[in-house]
Design brief:
Blueprint (H helix, E strand, L loop, with lengths): L5 E13 L4 E13 L2 E6 L8 E4 L3 E5 L1 E6 L35 H17 L2 E8 L5 H8 L2 E8 L2 E6 L3 E6 L1 H19 L6 E7 L7 H14 L2 E6 L3 H11 L3 H7 L7 E5 L15 H9 L2 E4 L1 H5 L8 H6 L3 E4 L8 H16 L7 H15 L16 E5 L11 H9 L4 E6 L2 E5 L2 E2 L4 H22 L6 H4 L15
Parallel strand pairs: 1-4, 1-5, 6-7, 7-8, 8-11, 11-12, 12-13, 13-14, 14-15
Antiparallel strand pairs: 1-2, 2-3, 5-16, 9-10, 16-17, 17-18, 18-19
C-alpha cells in the first residue's frame, strides 16, 4: 500500500526549523506536506502528490513536543489526594510519606498508562520517555498508541521507609536490586527490537540515593556498551541532597562526576537542588558548570514540585549556563502545554525577572532540548527530512483569539483545548481532539474504582495506621449523611 501523503494547504502559521540559525522560526501561509517518510515540503506552492488535503487557513502547524520524563505507573490514580499535604521535616515534600502509599494494582495499570498516553497526545506530545515498573502490556500499549516511546524500567537496591513523619530511612536489598537490573536489561532489548521502529529502551537506575555507586557505574557502563540513553532521578529533593552530603560530602552532580557518569547520553530527572540553590548549604555554582561541560541533560518537570512549594532556580539560568534542558510532565495532569506554562512562570519567579525566560526559549526546551537529550536530530523540529511528528493547532478556538503570536496564545492561554490533530510518523494519533488508537474514555471510567482500591491499600500499608480522611483530607468540610471519604 502506498504511503499516504497529507498536505496542509496555506497554513496560516508554521513553526519551522532554520538549520543555519539553529532555531525555530515562524512562517506564514505555507504548504506542509508529510507522510510516513517524513516532512516532504515546508514552504509555498507544493505541487507534488497529495492524497489528503487539510485546509490551513485557521491552522498553526508545529513540531510535536518531546516529553523526556513521565511516569505511567500509579500517577493517574493519585489525582486529588495529596496536593495539600507534605512532610514538614522533609522540606514539605509529599513524595516519601504520601505518594509512596499509592500503588496501582494489575487491573489498573493498563488504564493508568492509557490515560497518561492519551493526555500527552492531546497536549501535542509525539515522543515520551516513560519511567515505570514493567507489566505485561507496557510495551504493547505504548506501541499501539502510535507515539514515539522510550521505555525506562526502573530498578533500585533500597526502598524508602518513613520513621513517623520526621525521618527518611533506607531499607537495602542489593540482591533484589541486581535482579531488577537484570530484568530491566532484558526488557530494554525487547523494546529496542519492537518492529514498529518507534520504541527504544532506556537504562534507569531509579534514584541516585537508592542505588549503590557500584550499581550506578555498572548500569551506565552497560548502557554505553549498548548505545542506550540513561536516566536517573538526581538532586530532586532536599532529603536526597542532605543524604548524599551525609554519605559522600558531595552534591548529586559532583558524585556522578566522580563516578564518571556525567555525559551527553545521561538525563538527570529534576536536578533542582544544586549547589547554587537557595535552600542548600553551598553558595557556589560548580554544578551548573559540571552539567554544561559534560553535556548532561536535565529533565525539568515544574508542576509536581511547584505543588510542594519547590522550584528549579531557574530554567533561564540553566540555559544561560549552557545546560541542555528538556521538559517532562512527571505525573498528572500529563499536560505538556500546562507544564510549559508553569515552567515559564516558575522560571520568572525564581529568577525574579520577567526576562529570565521567554516563550521561544521555553518552546525550544520542549522540542529541541528534549530531542538533543535523546540524541535525535530528526524530531522536535519541522524541516524537510525530519520525522513527520507534528501537531495542528486550531487558531479559531476562542482561547486562541485574537492571534498576534500563536505560540504565546497556546502556552499562556489555550493549552490542549486548541490542539486539534497530532501525527507521529505521518499517522494520526489524535484526530479532531480524540485519541485515535486507544480506548481513552474507557480507561478514564476505570480510574475511579482503581483509586478507591488504591486508597484502601494505602490505609492498610500506612506505617502510622492513618485513615484516608487523615492522609488526604477534603479541601472543604464534608456536611451531610451518606458520604464516605474512601
Amino acid at each position: 500500500m502506498a504511503d499516504t501523503v497529507r498536505v496542509v494547504r496555506n497554513a496560516a502559521w508554521a513553526v519551522a526549523w532554520d538549520e543555519a540559525a539553529s532555531q525555530h522560526v515562524y512562517m506564514r501561509d505555507v504548504d506542509v506536506a508529510f507522510s510516513k517518510a517524513g516532512i516532504l515540503h515546508l514552504g509555498p506552492d507544493y505541487h507534488g502528490r497529495a492524497d489528503e488535503e487539510i485546509a490551513g487557513a485557521a491552522i498553526m502547524v508545529m513540531p510535536g513536543l518531546v516529553n523526556i520524563h513521565c511516569h505511567s505507573g500509579d500517577e493517574p490514580i493519585a489525582k486529588g489526594l495529596f496536593e495539600d499535604v507534605g512532610t514538614a521535616a522533609l522540606w514539605g515534600n509529599a513524595l516519601y510519606e504520601y505518594s509512596a502509599l499509592i500503588d496501582a494494582d494489575d487491573d489498573a495499570k493498563e488504564a493508568c498508562q492509557t490515560v497518561m498516553l492519551g493526555d500527552l497526545m492531546r497536549s501535542g506530545v509525539t515522543t515520551h520517555l516513560d519511567i515505570a515498573s514493567p507489566y505485561p502490556k507496557w510495551l504493547s500499549l505504548a506501541a499501539d498508541s502510535g507515539l514515539r516511546a522510550y521505555l525506562a524500567p526502573g530498578f533500585r537496591e533500597a526502598q524508602w521507609r518513613m520513621a513517623g513523619s520526621h525521618r527518611l530511612d533506607f531499607e537495602w536489598n542489593q540482591a533484589q536490586g541486581r535482579e531488577r537490573y537484570a530484568e530491566a536489561l532484558a526488557f530494554v532489548e525487547q523494546a529496542r527490537a519492537h518492529p514498529s521502529g518507534r520504541i527504544d529502551g532506556v537504562i534507569a537506575p531509579s534514584q541516585i540515593e537508592t542505588c549503590s555507586e557500584e550499581l550506578i557505574r555498572d548500569a551506565v557502563a552497560e548502557a554505553r556498551r549498548r548505545g542506550m540513553r540513561i536516566t536517573i532521578h538526581a538532586a530532586q529533593t532536599m532529603a536526597e541532597h542532605e543524604e548524599l552530603l551525609r554519605r559522600t560530602g558531595e552534591t548529586a552532580p559532583a558524585m556522578l562526576e566522580r563516578l564518571g557518569v556525567l555525559g551527553p547520553d545521561l538525563i538527570l530527572g529534576h536536578c533542582i537542588f544544586l549547589d547554587h540553590h537557595s535552600w542548600t548549604r553551598q553558595r557556589s555554582r560548580d554544578d551548573l558548570v559540571r552539567l554544561a561541560e559534560s553535556g548532561t541533560s536535565v529533565a525539568h518537570c515544574p508542576v509536581t514540585f511547584a505543588r510542594s512549594g519547590m522550584t528549579l532556580e531557574s530554567l533561564g539560568a540553566y540555559r544561560r549556563a549552557g545546560v541542555n534542558v528538556g521538559i517532562g510532565t512527571d505525573s498528572y495532569p500529563f499536560n505538556m502545554l500546562e507544564e510549559l506554562r508553569e515552567a515559564l512562570i516558575c522560571s520568572r519567579v525564581a529568577g525574579r525577572n520577567v526576562f529570565d525566560l521567554d516563550t521561544g526559549g521555553l518552546f525550544s526546551a520542549a522540542t529541541i532540548g528534549g530531542a538533543k537529550a535523546l540524541g535525535r536530530s530528526d524530531i522536535g523540529r519541522l524541516t524537510s527530512g525530519s520525522k513527520a511528528d507534528l501537531a495542528l493547532v486550531d487558531l479559531s478556538h476562542p482561547a486562541m483569539q485574537p492571534v498576534h503570536d500563536p505560540l504565546r496564545n497556546l502556552i499562556h492561554c489555550a493549552a490542549e483545548r486548541a490542539v486539534r490533530d497530532v501525527y507521529v510518523d505521518g499517522q494520526a494519533v489524535v484526530k479532531d481532539r480524540r485519541v485515535v488508537n486507544l480506548d481513552y474514555d474507557g480507561a478514564v471510567r476505570e480510574l475511579q474504582d482503581a483509586q478507591k482500591r488504591a486508597c484502601r491499600r494505602a490505609e492498610q500499608s500506612d506505617p502510622q495506621g492513618r485513615s484516608l480522611s487523615t492522609l488526604a483530607p477534603y479541601s472543604l468540610p464534608l456536611r451531610g449523611s451518606g458520604s464516605n471519604p474512601s
